[in-house]
Design goal:
Largest sheet: 6 strands, parallel
Bound molecules: carba-nicotinamide-adenine-dinucleotide
Mean pLDDT: 88
Helix content: 25-40%
Number of strands: 12
Low-confidence stretches: 395-401, 409-428
Length: 428
């Protein structure tokens, strides 16, 4: 039940089980704090979004007026999402590079909420932080790497969008700052064209085709329509295969000659981007692996500063067991079970904040920092939270805090083998 993206409706859960989630206490921050204090809640799963970094000075996406989407006019984008879209980036890399430079980690301090995440870890109750943010502030606040899932990627590494060659993200940043758009210097091996099927293979295909003609004659004789249909389809496929083989055989000598006369490798020259997940790209394997695993073990889900409008991240709501309480600390109510799309329809995994049948969901409709402060107040952790905040200081001006990244190293021109394709290797 816990790892499922479908949870039972409240009426399908016994009254006693539902009652036991809050043990008759009000659905509130103070009750949740009580359960953490008495050890009833030991494993807290956090799902965080851009709202937790707003107090650090990093705008979120969707807050009207201040969100990045409302402030992207300078880039003249067809849609705000285009800036994080691979096809658009391929033709217009500048908007993303400018934005990435603005969001580059190190220029911002973690917020109270980031320190709270670290405090959960220090208190031994943090199961995992799943964050959509790319600002690296969870790491800077000291949340251990193994307790962190950067679901939408990070600036820790960079790759070419064409050949997937790895590049030093610090070099990428330096070039962006110098006003150029970094391109991939990998050398791609151009393999010879694939040999066409040999004569023996084509002969076998032709024999199969002529045997079909005979089988069809027999099927006609007994008017077996099913057999005639099947044979007809097989005949079409075989004819196509033979035609393709003949075409490949005819074209091969010219292709081979062209390859022999031409260069055997080429500069990739694709654009490089930090490992920020774009729309349409898969999330890191760590997310897919840990979301169901952690979801099934969580005693409490805390959702912080997110509009829950990006899937599959928003699906974390449905990863925790049906009897696991869920706390949303966000300015607005989001992820509701009865909300109409857009942005999406949550159905039975959605939060039931206004549903009279709600037995487990709590909304602290406030800023994240205020919400976590209030929770810490109930927990008696205020002093520890303050101490973490005090202890965090930006280094003296001129140097920024170290952001974890893959070590800068000599990136040799790497030969990458690609499948031969004329279109792909046509130089622009
Ligand atoms: P979003 O869609 O902009 O939603 C943010 C939510 O947080 C909204 O519901 C706001 O009302 C709410 N909010 C804003 N400020 C606060 C605050 N101080 N306290 C409480 N709630 C607040 O952003 P999502 O994270 O939901 O969208 C996912 C995108 C945003 C991911 O792909 C991120 O990569 C991307 N993003 C990341 C950053 C960052 O790394 N800091 C910044 C902007 C966008």
């Amino acid at each position: 039940m816990g790892a499922s993206l479908s949870v039972p409706e409240p009426q399908d859960i016994s009254t006693e089980d539902r009652f036991n989630v809050f043990r008759g206490l009000p659905l509130s921050l103070s009750s949740l704090a009580q359960f953490i204090k008495d050890g009833h809640i030991k494993r807290i799963l956090v799902a965080a979004g851009a709202g937790i970094s707003v107090a650090a000075g990093i705008p979120d996406f969707r807050t009207p007026g201040t969100g990045l989407y409302d402030n992207l006019q300078n880039y003249d984008l067809p849609t705000p999402e285009s800036v994080f879209t691979l096809d658009y980036f391929r033709d217009h890399p500048q908007p993303f590079c400018t934005l990435a430079n603005e969001l580059w980690p190190g220029g911002f301090k973690p917020t109270t909420t980031h320190h709270f995440l670290r405090l959960l870890e220090l208190r031994g109750v943090l199961l995992r932080v799943f964050t959509q943010n790319i600002d690296g502030l969870e790491r800077l606040a000291g949340v251990s790497e193994e307790l962190l899932v950067e679901a939408h990627g990070s600036f820790a590494d960079a790759h070419c969008i064409e050949c997937a060659g790895q590049h030093c993200v610090l070099d990428w940043h330096e070039q962006i700052q110098a006003g150029s758009i970094p391109r991939c210097g990998c050398t791609l091996v151009i393999p010879p064209p694939t040999s066409p099927p040999d004569e023996e293979q084509v002969k076998i295909l032709r024999q199969e085709l002529s045997s079909i003609v005979q089988q069809k004659a027999k099927a006609w004789a007994v008017t077996n329509w099913q057999m005639l249909t099947d044979l007809g389809m097989k005949e079409v496929r075989l004819k196509e295969k033979i035609a393709e083989a003949e075409q490949q055989t005819a074209a091969f000598p010219a292709l081979l000659a062209e390859w022999e006369a031409g260069p055997k490798d080429k500069l990739c020259d694709g654009f490089i981007k930090p490992d920020i997940v774009f729309f349409g790209e898969g999330l890191p394997a760590r997310f897919s692996y840990l979301a169901p695993k952690d979801g099934g073990r969580a005693d409490l889900l805390i959702v912080l500063g997110t509009s829950l409008s990006v899937m599959p991240f928003a699906g974390l709501l449905g990863r925790v067991p049906a009897l696991c309480p869920r706390l949303l600390i966000n300015r607005q109510a989001v992820g509701l079970h009865d909300q109409e799309s857009p942005p999406m329809f949550f159905g039975n995994i959605g939060l039931r904040l206004t549903d009279p049948q709600n037995y487990r969901d709590v909304h602290a409709a406030m800023d994240c920092d205020d919400g976590v402060r209030e929770l810490c107040g109930h927990l008696g952790w205020t002093e520890e939270l303050n101490a973490l905040e005090r202890a965090y200081q930006l280094p003296a001006s001129g140097s920024r805090p170290e952001v974890p990244h893959r070590k800068r190293r000599q990136h040799k021109l790497k030969a990458v083998r690609l499948r031969f394709s004329h279109q792909r290797f046509t130089m622009p």
